[in-house]
């Protein structure tokens, strides 16, 4: 009886102990530790909690075999994991792979009795968080070659692949054949694994894929053409980049990362080269706290490397530049008040004032605010941090730091009047000298696009399209606007709108008839059949196709639609007869009288802002029909008086620009103003 009870007790103890072990393994580690302390575990005095590192999930690589009638077929994955196949069907390799691992399934041994050739399709790639199940292996007693012809190869080593695995190096033009035949019923897919690089070429594959069906494939066509690199340089304000930036070519998805550790100026080359005739369109990201802008970013390759793309990064988060003049943004909050709010209460933003008038004077580099002299400032543009001002009689482009109001002398242009910036370059034009130049903000390099030529009695002028440096002629290029690829010019005394392709420096006429000014009713005609009368300002809108023009002596605002063949011109505002006047506002565009409208900018969406110069007021024009014109600021008096919208005075307002917060304008009365 005792033995019976003893045996039962042992069984119960073993069962309870097993349950305890199972239960304790289910406890969290901190509870296990407490339980060990209670039970007096020998390790409880010095217990260390350990956690097992999570195991990466692995994925299988499977294949489907068809057509197999022989024996002895052996497949391999990545050259080592062998899989013997004895029948048709689906099979998996024994070794699973982690996500991100590569796989490469090949035939290690073809079957015999009967002899067959087996071909692998979709055999190579990367694991991406799922098992691979689309690999097919087709076996056939009949196999056929994959071959073709290479043309245009100029040297170097071209490497082709068939089905991602069968490599073939080619060094000369002519016929080629892959070393591994393909079983009948299998697919083939020929790709370029390596383009030749001595010289650099891009090779394309014609008739690249298909199925083998009872005959050799002989029509693979490889065509190689010379390829060219795409690149340029990066500069950074202060020389320090806050974070990596990425340059992307939207035409092919190619990208290049510029690291913060780079030494600036930094020369970059995109990863992929392009054949002649191929288009490129680059854009650049911006790191936190900085704004990077790109110039000469778009074009087509023409039998040479592209190395003139420029990127410049400045400090601060700034919006996009519209037309090279103004920052895109919501301007609905503008009050029309001029220098009323602190810290500019009744204080002109920049310029020396006596009484109600600005005082002309020689430019002094480094002057601040109301100690800075100007002498008839005309055109103006901004990159969001600085204002760039054409100081006409001082023959200087001036740079005003918006935050500190410090005015610097940036570069010299005789009789400078037109100005624009894409954030990388500042473009400027000399009115009487008929010259156009660009200044690199990152390298401080000044380049002449269209030279000024002294003829003995005057500067060369005229009208002709062609290369800007030689054939082309201008006659008072008075205003500029740009998208960083093209520079548009109000060629005022020729009464036309011109364009310079900044990649080629070729000048063409966009709209207008040279020497034939508009008089009387509007001439809304196709581009080069339309007429203008001393166009003196223009803005390319954010859409890149709407070009608005202040047709000054015609007292009209015109729209050139670059998206339509022929560049049709329409009048959106200004009295039908072109008569000057000062209409009460608001009213529709075509019923409004202006008196020589000059500066014009866009908010990039709904409105234009125009300096109605000889009415000494600033107005807003809706882009949508009926193009309602609304009063914004100006008492009509010739003065530079600060004050609320209806009391503020202007002295022939000219250039106009928005920095994302305030609207600035130059006055021929030798000052720069700020609207709140």
Describe the structure.
- Strands 12, 15, 18, 20 and 25 form a five-stranded mixed beta sheet that branches. Strands 34-38-37-36-35 form a five-stranded antiparallel beta sheet, with no helix packed on it. It has a five-stranded antiparallel beta sheet with strand order 43-47-46-45-44, with no helix packed on it.
- It contains two helices and 58 strands.
- β50 (556-561) and β51 form a beta hairpin.
- The protein is elongated and about 110 Å long.
- The longest helix has 25 residues, at 2-26.
- It has four domains: 59-141; 143-225; 233-315, no CATH class; 345-675, TolB, C-terminal domain (Neuraminidase, 6 Propeller), CATH 2.120.10.30.
- The protein is mainly beta and 676 residues long.
- This is SMP-30/Gluconolactonase/LRE-like region domain-containing protein.
Question: Could you give a short description of this structure?
Answer:
The chain is mainly beta and 676 residues long.
What structural keywords apply?
disordered N terminus; 44% strand; mainly beta; single chain; 4 domains; 676 residues; 5-stranded antiparallel β-sheet; 5-stranded mixed β-sheet; 2 helices
Largest sheet: 5 strands, mixed
Q: Kindly estimate the percentage of residues that lie in beta strands according to DSSP.
A: 35-45%
Number of strands: 58
The CATH architecture term of the largest domain is 6 Propeller
Number of helices: 2
State the helical fraction.
under 10%
CATH superfamily of the largest domain: TolB, C-terminal domain
> How far is the N terminus from the C terminus?
106 Å
User: What best-fitting shape do the alpha-carbon axes yield?
Assistant: elongated
Contiguous runs where pLDDT drops below 50 for at least 5 residues: 1-53
Instruction: Supply Rg.
Output: 37 Å
CATH topology of the largest domain: Neuraminidase
Number of domains: 4
Structural class: mainly beta
Mean pLDDT: 91
Reading off the top of the CATH hierarchy, the class of the largest domain is best stated as Mainly Beta
């Amino acid at each position: 009886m005792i033995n019976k009870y003893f045996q039962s007790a042992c069984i119960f103890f073993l069962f309870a102990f097993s349950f305890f072990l199972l239960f304790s393994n289910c406890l969290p580690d901190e509870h296990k530790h407490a339980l060990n302390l209670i039970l007096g575990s020998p390790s409880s005095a010095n217990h260390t909690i350990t956690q097992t590192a999570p195991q990466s999930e692995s994925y299988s690589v499977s294949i489907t075999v068809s057509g197999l009638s022989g024996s002895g077929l052996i497949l391999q994955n990545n050259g080592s994991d062998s899989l013997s196949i004895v029948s048709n069907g689906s099979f998996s390799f024994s070794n699973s792979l982690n996500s991100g691992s590569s796989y490469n399934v090949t035939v290690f041994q073809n079957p015999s009795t009967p002899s067959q050739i087996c071909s692998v399709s979709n055999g190579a790639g990367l694991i991406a968080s799922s098992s691979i199940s689309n690999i097919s292996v087709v076996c056939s007693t009949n196999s056929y070659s994959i071959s073709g012809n290479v043309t245009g190869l100029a040297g170097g080593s071209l490497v082709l692949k068939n089905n991602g695995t069968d490599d073939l190096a080619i060094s000369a033009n002519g016929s080629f054949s892959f070393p591994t035949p393909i079983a009948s019923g299998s697919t083939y897919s020929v790709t370029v694994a390596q383009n030749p690089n001595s010289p650099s070429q891009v090779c394309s594959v014609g008739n690249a894929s298909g199925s083998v069906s009872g005959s050799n494939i002989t029509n693979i066509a490889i065509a190689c053409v010379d390829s060219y690199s795409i690149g340029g340089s990066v500069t950074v304000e202060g020389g320090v980049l806050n974070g990596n930036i990425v340059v992307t070519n939207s035409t092919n998805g190619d990208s290049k990362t510029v690291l913060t550790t780079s030494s600036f100026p930094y020369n970059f080359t995109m990863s992929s080269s392009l054949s002649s005739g191929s288009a490129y369109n680059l854009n650049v990201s911006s790191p936190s706290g900085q704004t990077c802008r790109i110039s000469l970013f778009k074009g087509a390759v023409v039998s040479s490397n592209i190395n003139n793309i420029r990127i410049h990064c400045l400090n601060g988060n700034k919006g996009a530049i519209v037309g090279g003049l103004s920052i895109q943004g919501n301007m609905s909050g503008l009050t029309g008040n001029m220098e009323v709010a602190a810290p500019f209460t009744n204080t002109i933003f920049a310029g020396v004032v006596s009484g109600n008038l600005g005082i002309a004077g020689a430019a002094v580099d480094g002057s601040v605010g109301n100690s800075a002299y100007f002498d008839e400032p005309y055109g103006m543009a901004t990159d969001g941090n600085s204002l760039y001002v054409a100081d006409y009689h001082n023959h200087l482009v001036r740079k005003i730091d918006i935050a500190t109001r410090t005015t610097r002398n940036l570069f010299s242009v005789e009789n400078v009047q037109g100005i624009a910036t894409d954030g990388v370059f500042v473009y400027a034009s000399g009115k009487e000298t008929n010259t156009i130049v660009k200044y690199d903000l990152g390298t401080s390099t000044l380049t002449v696009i269209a030279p000024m030529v002294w003829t003995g009695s005057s500067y060369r002028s005229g009208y002709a399209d062609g290369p800007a440096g030689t054939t082309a002629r201008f006659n008072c290029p008075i205003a500029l606007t740009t998208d960083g690829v093209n520079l548009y010019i109000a060629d005022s005394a020729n009464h036309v709108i011109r364009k310079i392709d900044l990649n080629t420096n070729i000048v063409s006429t966009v709209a207008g008839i040279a020497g034939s000014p508009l008089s009387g009713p509007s001439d809304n005609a196709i581009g080069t059949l339309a007429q203008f009368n001393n166009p003196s300002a223009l803005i390319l809108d954010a859409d890149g196709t709407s070009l608005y023009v202040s047709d000054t002596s015609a007292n009209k605002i015109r729209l050139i639609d670059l998206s339509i063949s022929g560049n049709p011109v329409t009048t959106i505002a200004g009295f039908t007869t072109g008569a000057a006047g000062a209409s009460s506002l608001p009213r529709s565009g075509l019923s409004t009288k202006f008196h020589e409208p000059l500066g014009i900018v866009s908010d990039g969406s709904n409105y234009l802002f125009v300096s109605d110069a000889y009415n000494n007021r600033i107005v807003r024009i809706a882009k949508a029909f009926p193009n309602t014109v609304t009063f914004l600021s100006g008492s009509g008096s010739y003065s530079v008086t600060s004050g609320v919208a209806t009391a503020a005075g202007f002295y022939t307002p000219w250039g106009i620009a928005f920095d994302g917060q305030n609207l600035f304008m130059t006055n021929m009365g030798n000052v720069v103003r700020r609207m709140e």
